[in-house]
Every structure is written in structure tokens, then in C-alpha cells.
Amino acid sequence: MSDTANLFIDWQAQWHSPPWQACDFLPIVPNQSTVKTLLDDAKSCDPSVTYVSTGSGDSAYLISIDGVENNQGNNGYYWVYFVNGQMPSVGFGAYKLSPGDSVAWDYKHFSSGLRQVNQPDHPANK
């Protein structure tokens, strides 16, 4: 297995066109690269992916991907991430990737019950 990971972003059609993007085989350093560093490297995707966040490590908090913000216009939608289909229990700046991991960012409504955990300042945890 090569030292790469895959990235998938699902904005939904009402927020972005196209509504999803995949960026496969991004290089990682096993057990050092994080989901955050994977997003850093997504600027090399075609089209490139940009994001805004605050903090670092376990306190990193994602604000937006390609201009689509958490709770944009009080819509109740937030970015949540999954690794290999599971929602990790650590922030995206702390989750260490392994070769072959698949990371998916979904823009989900708060009522779905999905939220980023271990981030007390996240609006979904209030």
C-alpha cells in the first residue's frame, strides 16, 4: 500500500457546483500527517480545495471549505469528517492518517446528529 490517502468533499448541490469532489492519492507521512495536513495538500487537486480553520492539533476547528461556512446564514449545516466511514473522536488537526485512509467531509444538517466531537467551542456542542 502506498503512503497516500484519499479525500472526498460533499457540499450538496445547493451549496456548491459541482456538489462533490474527490482527490485521490494525496501523499502522506504515516502516523504524522493529519486530516488537516491532507486538506493543506488538497490545494494541488483539480480544482483546488481551500479551507479556513482556527487553532491547531486537537483544538483545530474548521470554519469553511471553498467558502461554504459552518452554519452559513444560520442554515444549521456544519462540516463533519469521517475516516474510512467512521467519525473520529478527535479533532481534524489531531487525527493521524495511515496509508490508504479515505477521508470524507460532509456538509450535514445539525438535526442529523452528526457533529465534530472533542471541541467544546463547536456550536453543535452547546
Number of helices: 1
Distance between the termini: 41 Å
Strand order of the largest sheet: 2-1-7-6
What amount of the residues lies in strands?
A: 25-35%
Unreliable segments (pLDDT under 50, ≥5 consecutive)?
115-126
Structural class: mainly beta
Order of H and E elements: EEHEEEEE
Shape type: globular
Helix content: under 10%
Structural commentary:
This protein has 126 residues and is mostly beta strands. The chain has 1 helix and 7 strands. The protein has one helix at 35-41; strands at 4-10, 20-27, 51-54, 61-65, 68-69, 77-83, 102-109. It is 6% helix and 33% strand. The longest helix has 7 residues, at 35-41. It has a 4-stranded mixed β-sheet with strand order 2-1-7-6, with helices on one face. The model is unreliable at 115-126 (pLDDT under 50).
